[in-house]
Amino acid sequence: MQLDLPTVCINLGVALALGLLVGLQRERSASAVAGIRTFAFIALLGGMIPLLADLTTQPLAKPVLIAAGLISVLGLAYIGNLVRVPADASPGVTTEVAMLVVFAAGVLCGMGEVQVAAIIGGVTTLLLHLKPSLQRFSRGLSDDDVRAAMQFVVITLIILPVVPDKDLGPFSAINPHHMWLLVVLVVGISLAAYVVQRVWGQQRGLLLAGVLGGLVSSTATTAALARRTREHTSLAGIATSAIFLATSVLYVRVLVELYIVAPALLAEMLVPIGVLLALCLASAGLAYAMGKHEQSQTLPQLRNPAELKGAIVFALLFALVQVLSAGAYKWMGETGYYAVAAVSGLTDLDAITLSTGRLQARGAVGIEQASTAIAIALASNLAFKIGLAGVLSSGLLGRRFWTLGAVNLAACAGVVAWMAWTAK
Questions:
Q1: How far apart are CA 149 and CA 132, in angstroms?
Q2: Number of Cβ within a 10 Å radius of residue 155
Q3: Which residues contact 396 (CB under 8 A, 6 or more apart)?
Q4: How far is CA 98 from the centre of its chain?
Q5: H or E stretch including 8?
Q6: Which value, to the nearest 10 degrees, does the dihedral of the CA atoms of residues 221, 222, 224, 227 take?
Q7: Binning pLDDT at 50, 70 and 90, where does residue 300 land?
Q8: Which residues, including other chains, have CB under 8 Å from residue 31's CB and lie 6 or more apart?
Q9: Is the dihedral of CA 364, 368, 369, 371 positive or negative?
Q10: pLDDT reading at 382 higher than 60
């Protein structure tokens, strides 16, 4: 078999680069077992094995050579420990494991999977470099933190896969798997916000959590942050600001989705949604200023937020809205188009935005009717979040969010009225 020399050189070059990268980190860490040259040779060895196997006609050549290479790397690691590592040194095996990973990445390079190998090499180098930070983070965790992380693992990796993924209940509108996925989403956002606050501080962490949560679900973010203020009312101002930031990200998401599926509809909605976005950002800034007095005080130590009660309440509310939405569509048919948009928008704007955009792009609905439906969905979504904040939060956040939310809701109503008027 004739090898493709340019491809072989590229694959081996990537393997060598990965070996040098990991080896550089180990060299700077003064590893007694392997340094920059050793890791480079290990990566090249891994890259050569698939090439050697391709030059033979034996069907088992590749697995046999890979196994022999692994044994050789393990033997080198053992010899390195015997010869170079002092008897009283730490018995850690980080370098030895890194040698095996680099060998495997080299094998992947030899097989042409250079992108996967590059990711593995980069992650390996990063983990090796972040050892002090990871150790400090681990030592800083309390028993409650670890318990909450384990609880999240249970509801995500153990319970979620076995929950039935089929439509049940009235109008077949309730999917247990989707409902439990919402529970996972709310708990996950709460846990992520908690971790971000531990790293960045409570004030900046909550704001960042609002922005990141808005990329996933502004409604779930509202539920997660509102629950937090029930125990810590001093977070009301910053949490209100974070919720408005999440809603601002939602508006940006809607514009991006319209750009993808219905550019003509985007041109119609750009100015109205832009006005709502600007008002929402202003509300976030005002909420931050309103809570400045509380923020200047010593904030309470946050507990880990991975409890299920509030998340399950949110999922049940979502299921109720889904039933109402399905019922509205069944009872009203096409004449209930706007009613369906209002009910669907209560908990999910992505579905109504994408479906309406597709309908408009196909010419099934007019651009005026489609823009009115999306405006109605935006208003109903904001109204639902205002009610959700009132149910799940402390009274202080509820009152502030109601006040600022009412202004934003009035603006949404104005947009709806304008769209409805132009649609005539």
A1: 21
A2: 18
A3: 229, 233, 236
A4: 28
A5: helix 5-28
A6: 170
A7: very low
A8: 95
A9: positive
A10: yes
User: Could you tell me which residue, 119 or 237, shows the higher pLDDT?
Assistant: 119
- How far from 392 is each of 206, 208, 220, 286, 298, CA to CA, in Å? 17, 21, 12, 22, 24
For 315, the token pair is: 């999922």
- Residue 36's closest CA among 45, 48, 28? 28
CA–CA distance, 83 with 253 (Å, rounded to integer): 59
Bigger pLDDT: 130 or 117?
Answer: 117
The number of beta carbons lying within 10 Å of the beta carbon of residue 85 is 16
* Residue 231 burial (CB count, 10 A): 12
Question: CA quadruple 398, 403, 406, 408: dihedral positive or negative?
Answer: negative
More confident residue, 96 or 333: 96
Radius of gyration of the chain (CA): 28
Q: What is the pLDDT of residue 424?
A: 57
How do residues 16-50 score in pLDDT, each as one tens digit? 898 898 888 888 876 666 778 888 888 888 888 88
Write out pLDDT tens, residues 219-250: 777 877 777 776 666 677 777 888 888 888 88
35 in helix, strand or coil? Answer: coil
Instruction: Please compute, for residue 282, the number of CA atoms within 13 A of its CA located in the half-sphere on the CB side.
Output: 10
Total residues found in the chain within this entry: 424
In the block, tokens 């005539």 appear at: 424
CB 128, CB 94: distance < 8 Å: yes
Question: Is residue 412's pLDDT more than 70?
Answer: yes
Whole-Å CA distances, 21 to 31, 121, 219, 234, 373: 14, 8, 43, 47, 54
pTM to 2 decimal places: 0.57
256-296 pLDDT tens trace: 878 887 888 888 888 888 888 999 899 888 888 776 655 44
Vertex 71 angle, CA 38 and 36, to 5°:
10
Q: How far apart are CA 351 and CA 340, in angstroms?
A: 12
DSSP state of 197: H
Asked if residue 148 lies in contact with residue 305, where contact means CB atoms within 8 angstroms, the answer is: yes
Token output for 396: 């202080």
Strand partners, 174: 168
Domain ranges of the chain: 5-136, 143-423
With H, G, I as helix, E, B as strand and everything else as coil, classify residue 174. Answer: strand
